[in-house]
Recover the amino acids of this structure.
């Protein structure tokens, strides 16, 4: 996450300046109006400070705008601690979230891992005034990846198949060594023991990828929507036992703003959003093309016939 | 619970006293990286430094080069190297050697330079070859400053060798990086305390060596009254 955070911080700083510069001449805002949030028909959309989340927020914003909902954007806010607070005190009304992390934020003791369990547990864990809408199939979570050669040579499809590999070398973030979804979970849930663990502190970034491609590690933990997975033809191992908690993308919204109209639009978006879409969108945003989130959102909504 | 008592608990917990993650093993790894780095840097820097000091050639270039090397950010360099040579010991060793070369080189040439010109002239007048002058006059007289350069290099390397953990190696840096990953601040503080202690102990050892080196210098002849 570190590299992501730094990049996001830089982006947030830049955005902060540009917001400060143009915030006052928003044409939708009557001059002298007390506070736009007090008008019940405007919905303020926030996002976490990393590109993927910003793209999804743009998709929500443009999707809602297309159906005539008044939208204000306050993107790139920062970490969960910051934007959840902003949501609770009404500075923003809607933010794209990830189900598993959102659950452990409100309930650190939560043990639910499958998509359904997580959603159910979320219902109980969310504080008053906030609710989540229909979750999408799209997930951004830790995923265990191998090269396609290694997968073929060892006949690997799921994490369970790793049990048959002797002297398995695994590279991941340092927390993988102690967290329940990491080494302890591989042993407990899948019975995989004797793993040689290499801790790589770049959050599944270029150093982790190089270690995997060089064969320094056999398995690498890379976030499931990282374009390098597709670019290098990596095989993401399936997780039939739900060792790694589900992280489905879903809208976290202020209950008061969740009108039927808003819910319909967001549900329609969630119904079509997939992990593959996020991979493509991240690839176009981060690769050579460097397409802006707003442009990507528009392209996606158009392709899915949502605007 | 205060950070201080948590840290003391972490340092004294017997769980941390054995095994791969134990303090003894991490300490040995850390000292190993430091020793390897200083050995490689010494093989490169000390002969070159002695030669520069003896001949006075390329002194300007050496000063400029060591200045530039000192300005290199080790973690950035390590990350870039890891992307080129991959994970393993090579990348951190190169990064740490580049950190250690400037003080060792500077100690060697500054030490030889500091030797009184008249002494060297006298040695030459006695018929010593250039190599004999270097071995029997310049190096013994320069030794305290050379050891001082090594002392400064060792301190920098032992404090910076924590970066090795960033690319998956061991050493005391593991505690800093693993601790941060799971918000275990006692572990991070404990690791930092260990690095400080090791640095202090090594500095004490080198201070003693430096004093011994000073003592080994040829005794000054007391001139008859």
């Amino acid at each position: 996450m570190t590299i992501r955070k730094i990049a996001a911080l830089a982006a947030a700083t830049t955005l902060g300046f540009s917001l400060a510069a143009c915030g006052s001449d928003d044409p939708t805002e009557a001059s002298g109006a007390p506070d736009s949030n007090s008008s019940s028909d405007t919905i303020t959309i926030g996002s976490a400070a990393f590109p993927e989340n910003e793209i999804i927020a743009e998709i929500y914003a443009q999707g809602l705008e297309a159906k005539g909902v008044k939208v204000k954007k306050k993107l790139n806010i920062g970490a969960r601690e910051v934007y959840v607070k902003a949501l609770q005190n009404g500075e923003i009304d809607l933010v794209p979230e990830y189900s598993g992390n959102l659950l452990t934020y409100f309930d650190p003791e939560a043990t639910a891992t499958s998509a359904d369990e997580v959603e159910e547990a979320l219902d109980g864990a969310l504080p008053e005034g906030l609710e989540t809408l229909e979750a999408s199939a799209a997930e951004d979570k830790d995923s265990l990846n191998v090269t396609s050669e290694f997968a073929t040579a060892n006949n690997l499809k799921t994490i369970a198949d790793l049990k048959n590999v002797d002297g398995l070398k695994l590279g991941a973030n340092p927390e993988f060594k102690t967290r329940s979804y990491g080494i302890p979970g591989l042993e407990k849930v899948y019975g995989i023991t004797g793993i040689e663990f290499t801790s790589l502190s770049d959050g599944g970034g270029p150093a982790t990828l190089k270690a995997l491609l060089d064969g320094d590690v056999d398995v690498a933990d890379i976030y499931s929507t990282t374009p390098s997975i597709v670019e290098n033809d990596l095989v993401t191992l399936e997780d039939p036992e739900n060792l790694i908690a589900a992280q489905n993308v879903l809208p976290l919204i202020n209950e008061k703003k969740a009108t039927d109209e808003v819910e319909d639009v967001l549900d329609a978006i969630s119904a079509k959003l997939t992990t593959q879409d996020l991979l493509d969108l991240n690839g176009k945003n981060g690769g050579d093309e460097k397409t802006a989130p707003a442009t990507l959102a528009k392209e996606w909504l158009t392709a899915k016939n949502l605007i | 619970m205060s950070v201080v008592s948590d840290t003391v608990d972490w340092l004294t917990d017997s769980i941390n006293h054995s095994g791969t993650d134990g303090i003894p093993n991490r300490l040995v790894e850390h000292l190993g990286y430091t020793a390897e780095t200083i050995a490689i840097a010494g093989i490169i820097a000390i002969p070159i430094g002695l030669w520069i000091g003896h001949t006075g050639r390329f002194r300007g270039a050496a000063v400029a080069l060591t200045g530039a090397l000192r300005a290199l950010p080790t973690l950035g360099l390590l990350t870039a190297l890891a992307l080129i040579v991959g994970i393993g010991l090579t990348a951190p060793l190169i990064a740490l050697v580049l950190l250690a070369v400037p003080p060792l080189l500077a100690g060697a040439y500054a030490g030889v330079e500091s030797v009184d010109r008249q002494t060297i002239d006298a040695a030459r007048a006695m018929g010593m070859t250039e190599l004999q002058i270097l071995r029997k006059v310049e190096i013994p007289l320069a030794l305290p400053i050379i050891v001082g350069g090594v002392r400064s290099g060792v301190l920098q390397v032992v404090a910076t060798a924590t970066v090795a953990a960033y690319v998956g190696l061991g050493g005391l840096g593991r505690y800093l990086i693993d601790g941060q990953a799971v918000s275990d601040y006692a572990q991070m503080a404990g690791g930092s305390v260990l690095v400080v202690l090791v640095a202090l102990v090594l500095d004490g050892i080198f201070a003693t060596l430096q004093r011994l080196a000073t003592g080994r210098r040829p005794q000054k002849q007391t001139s008859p009254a």
Summary: The first strand of chain A starts at residue 42 and ends at 48.
